[in-house]
Design a protein that fits this description.
Blueprint (H helix, E strand, L loop, with lengths): L2 H5 L9 E3 L11 H10 L6 H7 L2 E5 H7 L4 E4 L12 E7 H6 L4 H10 L2 E8 L15 E10 L4 E7 L5 E7 H10 L7 E7 L21 H13 L16 E3 L3 H13 L8 H23 L8 H25 L6 H25 L2
Antiparallel strand pairs: 1-6, 2-3, 2-10, 4-9, 5-6, 5-9, 6-7, 7-8
């Protein structure tokens, strides 16, 4: 596909490049979170939703029972096709449909980006420069596209790089096409377009207020903190809309994390840093939440909770790095201290959240 053909899809023929706003996200252990937060983080109106949504953790029974995977994640889990986030408008397509319609992928992407839609799809990272698998292993994974430059023939994308860091970088049109076509179209064929809407964009909604809004709700934050502290399944609150998710929630995750680490030590499971990475991101978000509540005046400036939250965040970062060090050195014995350390963290976190709830109720 030459540049002239790609230009033909532009509404504004003078628009040679597009780079939609995207900020490095606070949570990136799973990419569904990274994409959503990268889009919404800069906007004050999204803060109440962010600081309410990143309280609860869970381990899915499905993953544990069927796949033997201790998949720790935030709830809501924000899978790529998740479309109940305020201010984000989603359009779903797939490679099979585009192929049947004879739609060239470059023309599709450029048209979406020109109309302020970010795009998520799947590619073979064997062809993506600076990815973990570049020119070594064929591995199909999702990629986030937030811009293009026709003159330079590149896309702006967000992926995990060769150092396993979530980064933004550039991918040539040629590389992207190879990666996109390599896997075929029968599996992982999702193409998801996401547009950020301003709250004002919803004022003319047929359904009125409540669409595209998420007002700060202190009681809701207290309720979800209580769910976490008591190990309560927060999905039970949504029974009117969906079947509750079966899993282990809040503080109930800790025994399963200890079991996971024990099984890694014993060689039953492979090293996996994701669980402790998400645990660290959870503590990091707790620090940000306490700072936000202080900013709003719901916590006193002299509260000791912030320093305690920072201490737990620092400890969880150490745990994450210990798992990573064990993986890099293939040393399972190095993980032994983690089992008891997680028990200590559980006790300290229960005390922190109990005190936080008490102060918020004053």
């Amino acid at each position: 596909m030459n540049i002239v053909d790609m230009e033909s899809v532009l509404t504004d023929k003078t628009m040679r490049s597009v780079k939609l706003p995207f900020e490095m996200p606070q949570v990136y252990g799973f990419l569904g979170h990274a994409y959503v937060l990268g889009i919404l983080q800069p906007y004050d109106y999204a803060k109440p939703w962010i600081h309410t949504s990143y309280i609860q953790l869970f381990i899915s029974k499905h993953y544990l029972n069927d796949l033997q995977e201790y998949r720790l994640d935030f709830y809501p889990d924000l899978m790529i096709a998740y479309n109940n986030t305020p201010w984000l408008q989603y359009k779903h397509s797939d490679k099979v449909l585009l192929d049947q319609l004879g739609v060239d992928i470059h023309r599709y992407l450029i048209s979406q980006l020109e109309h302020n839609y970010y795009v998520v799809t799947y590619v073979d990272e064997f062809y993506i420069h600076n990815s973990i698998c570049y020119q070594e292993n064929h591995f199909v994974h999702d990629i986030f596209i937030y811009g293009f430059d026709l003159d330079r023939q590149i896309y702006h994308v967000a992926i995990f790089d060769k150092n396993r860091q979530f980064t933004v970088q550039e991918v040539t049109f040629e590389q992207f096409e190879q990666a996109y076509l390599s896997q075929g179209k029968s599996t992982q064929s999702l193409i998801n377009s996401i547009k950020r809407l301003e709250p004002l964009d919803y004022e003319s909604s047929k359904y009125g207020s409540g669409v595209g809004r998420f007002d700060f709700d202190l009681q809701l934050i207290i309720d979800v903190l209580s769910d976490y502290l008591e190990g309560r399944n927060s999905t039970e609150r949504l029974r009117l809309q969906q079947q509750p998710v079966e899993g282990y929630f809040g503080v109930e995750i800790y025994p399963y994390l200890q079991k996971f680490i024990t099984r890694v030590i014993e060689g039953e499971l492979n090293f996996d840093v994701r669980q402790l990475h998400i645990l660290w991101e959870h503590k990091k978000m707790m620090v940000a939440r306490i700072e936000y509540l202080m900013e709003l005046g719901y916590l006193q400036e002299e509260t000791p909770l912030l320093e305690e939250a920072k201490r737990l965040e620092k400890r969880s970062y150490t745990y994450r790095n210990l798992m990573l060090k064990g993986f890099m050195s293939n040393n399972r014995d190095i993980l032994h201290p983690l089992v008891n350390s997680l028990e200590e963290m559980l006790i300290a976190e229960k005390a922190l959240i109990t005190q936080l709830i008490e102060e918020l109720r004053k």
